[in-house]
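It is worth pausing here to work through a concrete case rather than discussing structure prediction in the abstract. The textbook approach is simple: state the sequence, then state the predicted structure, then interpret. We follow exactly that order.
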Amino acid sequence: MNMLVTSAIAAIVPLILGFIWYHPKVFGTAWMSATGLTREEGKNMNMPLVFGLTYVVSFMLAIALHPVTIHQMSVYSLLANEPGIKDPNSEIGMWLKQFMMQHGNNFRTFKHGALHGGMLGVFALTPVVIVNSLFERRGFKYIAITAGYWIIAVILMGGIVCQFTKFGGM
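Step two, the predicted structure:
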């Protein structure tokens, strides 16, 4: 699958995970308590807008996960301005084709993508959640539930992106 298709699929993960994670029998009740929201307030939200925007920003996150989880993208990045890079018959084009034949599938597993997704979740998303939560005066319970959700989401998204993106679509 190409980059846009795998991103579109990976972007569904936060929605599905959210239905599970924030269910009242999982963390939903504790999260609502930590936010001070009530079920009535939740029912008054514009859910199509919330879900639609969640999908759009999750798609953006999935696109950003490609260079984080797929190491071969750095080769393309390094060679982007080389003369002849887009010509498969040029010297650099033939070298790149040979390189990708030898190394194009290295570290291209769900497990590897999940590892890098988890690292992004812990070292990039969790600090953002913590800083925002501190200024919003949220407690540890809110931070743990929200950060945990995003760590699991990017683990799964990273795995999907890394395992299923094929270079023919880049």
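Step three, interpretation. The mean pLDDT is 94. The chain has one domain: 3-71+107-169.
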